[in-house]
Amino acid sequence: MDDGSGVNTTKRNNYQPESSVATTKTLYDTTHTNNEVSELLDNSQNNYSSSSDEVSYITNFTNTILKECGFISGGRGSGKSRLGMLLTNILLANGVMVKVMDSSRQWLKHSSVPTYYTIPIPKYGGYIAYWDLPNLWNTIYDCSRLSTIELTELVKGMMKEDFQEAVTLDEQGTPQRACYIFEESQNLIPSGSLRRNDYQEVNRFVTQGRNYGLSYIAITQRLATTDTTLVELSGVKFFGKVEGENTVRKAKAWVNKKLLETSRDFPVGRFIVQHGTYAKIEQFPCFETLHKPQRYIEPKPEKKGFWSRIFG
Ligand SMILES: Nc1ncnc2c1ncn2[C@@H]1O[C@H](COP(=O)(O)OP(=O)(O)OP(=O)(O)O)[C@@H](O)[C@H]1O
Ligand SMILES: [Mg+2]
Fold it and tell me: What stretches of the chain show up as alpha helix (H) in DSSP?
């Protein structure tokens, strides 16, 4: 089977993000001096613990995500996507390459990822879906036209390809610094899927990818139907307003119960941040980029003149 990626070359965009948020100093800036960090920590409210987990999460957000990956969950309209965009902007600003799998088309409108590519409906060989796509980094793959099955096939193929490339780069001594963003990750990695044979590539990516500089941030509104292993593997977790008893029950495995109860009334943009033993409530700004993503235009094959067609 074609693995779905049909990818030959990796194109990297050199990118300097600019956004309305990036200019304001937040806890997520990685350029704070030690004094500034302690001032921000002193000013922060609802600080439930203080530990090295807190310091490493705040002072070195990019490396923490690269090493430990991230997970964002919350009810409908709780601000998950905008938070994902804010975190992605920080990663981009720190030289991390990103690839966003998005079916909601929200990222095309509000994020600072420079390029987007709309994935066409695949060709079929029997039951097998396949594509011939460019492998692009710093790009949103707009998956809105795909069925859930097509989407998972696509992601499996991409992960296989990117994992192999990351291993090669690591062998050459230039390790990858890359992060996948999975919007609506309950569709991509649903409950129990990581144990399945046909998910081996995804399993390898999420469990071992970080050894080769491949990380992810998963975003979901349905914590209860997302694979538990995925949540467990994610070092930095953000929990927004919780909806539904199932979600509350599941979230109790990871979140301080007292904090979780308060999250039922969270306004949009407010999240519990959890990293190791560190847990705190934070209100995030509403991310809006100044530079909307541009459609990726595939380079046309070079037209050959009459003589070069004859003589090669
Ligand atoms: N931090 C924030 N502060 C204030 N308003 C916000 C914030 N984040 C998002 N919003 C507002 O809430 C709306 C929904 O945000 P967003 O799309 O990020 O939520 P979501 O949780 O991803 O929603 P969905 O469940 O539909 O995917 C945005 O269009 C924006 O107007
Ligand atoms: Mg969303």
Answer: 34-43, 52-59, 61-68, 80-93, 106-110, 148-171, 185-188, 200-208, 228-233, 245-251, 257-262, 306-311
Is ligand 1 within 6 A of the CB of residue 106?
A: yes
Domain 10-311: assigned CATH number: 3.40.50.300
Which residues are within 8 A (CB) of 222 and not within 5 positions of it... i.e. 6 or more apart?
Answer: 186, 247
- pTM (predicted TM-score): 0.83
**What tens digit of pLDDT does each residue of 164-192 get?**
999 999 999 999 999 999 999 999 999 99
- Residue 269, Ramachandran bin (φ over 0: left; ψ between -120 and 50: alpha; else beta): left
Residue nearest atom 3 in ligand 1 by C-alpha distance: 286
Which parts of the chain register pLDDT below 50? 1-49
Residue-wise pLDDT for 205-228, tens only, equals: 999 999 999 999 999 998 988 999
Specify the pLDDT at position 311. 67
Rounded to the nearest 5°, which phi and psi values hold at 228? Answer: -60, -35
Q: Residue 21: which residues within 8 A CB-CB, separation 6 or more? A: 86, 89, 285, 287, 288
Closest protein CA for atom 31 of ligand 1: 286
Q: Calculate how far, in angstroms, residue 90's C-alpha sits from the geometric centre of ligand 1.
A: 18
Query: For the chain, what are the domain ranges?
Result: 10-311
